[in-house]
Amino acid sequence: MAQLFSPAAATLFRVAIVLACLGILSGAALAYVWARSGSTWNVGKPAPQPVPFRHDLHSGSLGIDCRYCHSTVERAADAGMPSAQTCMTCHSQVWVGASVLEPIRSSFLLGQPIEWASVHRLPDYAYFNHAVHVTKGVACETCHGRVDRMSKTVKTQTMSMGWCLDCHRDPVPQLRPQDAVFTMGYEPHGKNLPDDLREFYREASRRLTSCNTCHR
Amino acid sequence: MSSEAIAVTTPVAEVPLSRRFGRVWWCALVVSGGLVLLLGYTLVSVTILGVGIWGVNIPFVWGFDLINYAWWIGIANGASLFAAILVLRRHDLRTAVNRFAEGVAFFAVICAGIFPIFHLGRPWLFYWTFPYPATFEVWPQFRSTLTWDFWAISTHAIVTSLLWYVGLIPDLATLRDRARRKSVQRIYGIFALGWRGSVRHWAYHQRAYRLVAILVLPLILIMQSTVAFEFAVTLVPDWHETRQPLHFVATGLAQGLSIVLLVAVLLRSGLRLGRYIDEEDIDLLGKLVLASAIVSGYLFLDEVIAALLAERMAQEAMLNRMTGDYAGLYWTAIVYSVLIPQLLWFKAARNSTIAGVFVGLSIGVGIWFDRFSIIVGGLQTDYLPSISRNYQPTLAETGLFLGTIGLFAALLLLFVRFLPVVSMFETRHDEHLEKSS
User: Is residue B13 part of a domain?
Assistant: First the structure.
């Protein structure tokens, strides 16, 4: 009877087993890296906006305070997006005829809100409150990055649950004094953390990592 | 290999190698295939529409999903525990029943695994129960029964499939050598992993087979207890008992043995394997089933006694199961799993195919009612007056259950068609021993 398999078959089979194991391992490694990469979370990807609004111009060069447009950030869960009226406080005087501002003007005349596209949308099951973060010393910059340098608004952080928890488990290194929350390019604390804060958050981080703090 | 040794197992090897398999097999496969389609349909519908299409609702958070899970895993446990003990004891019965007992265990695990995954509600996220480095940086809750299910089922699947496959390797090589078509030879040859039957191969094989069999023993006890603990750790008065694991392990063994008996008598008459699964084997199997049914009976009694010693709440819960809205389930369980098997006291019944099928099915049905009674009967008494509805499985749940029975039958039919149902190498070994002694 002729041989069923060639002499190399056993070697091939062994190689196939090793390759399959390596394939599984590298697949797992790939999945690990992919799940953490910025592009998976749309980091750095601008959303199509009705108006080519530039943060670098308004916030960076002109120095307009964040709260001028995001007016409810200190009081509500939502930071608030500017209405056409807010834009028109200046743009009724400057860039009056600019065609790129046409959506603003028509929105103002028709009394309809501008449809800004959200860049930092969290899932429905995650409850996020801007006010509590801002009033407790979490700066705009910590989550949104150097918005004052962005010509197109993009995410700079993954905003994954793990990223939230990184801070909730140990918030103190990220916190700023109240007068520095809206500044850009501020270096919090340096190496020495304030003792009273550290003492407080040793207890509080337990509450901050409870499921129903964010999933209500 | 001597020609005599080949002749011994030819009828077994001829079954998977034959080109035609008769109409009955095809009819059975079509019927079970139809049930598998039903299974697919119910699974797709529960995935798209959600668990709302099931009859489960507060207080009956667990219905058919857990009843059937516990039932199938009981069969898997009983059958693989039995097979492992036979391998380790080198008992004569292993030549006859081991192969398909291991197969039954593996197929039952597959059926069992479907329920916990789909009762998650979001089955596509089932891997969240596995501790892997997720981007949400939270480990699974190790105190949750969902994670226990994950470990119980995956351990079961790995160990029972290993036990089955390791036992199959020498027989796959036999099939490879006896197959007439080149393509068939190649397929069996790949799965035989280059088995040449050298002394070294046999030494390794024996070691591996027995090692896996030893692994089965503690794992089965632990995993079946895990299923029982899923009930025992809750605060439901009728479930919150330390005797729960014992009840599940022992009744599970009865159930596994009864399904092994059922398959044994069916194979014996269906494939005319009387020489390999002989009267003595069936007789012994019948006695084992009887013994395990008596143990089940003792455990039903123990339940009552344990309730008498317990506090009032547990007593009420037990009494409610015996006399409440679901009393029928409880008493059916006792009749089918304890009383009917008493038929096996008679030799005529042990040797009869019809009685074997009848008793095998009856214990399976009885234990199913027992699981139903434990799960639904335990939840029935809620201490909130607003809740008075009862649990009733919907068509989607019944279809799912029938579907897993179809899947089990289809896997068994395919196994019978393509693999040797009796361990040929063990048979050769024993016949050789008999001749030399």
Answer: no
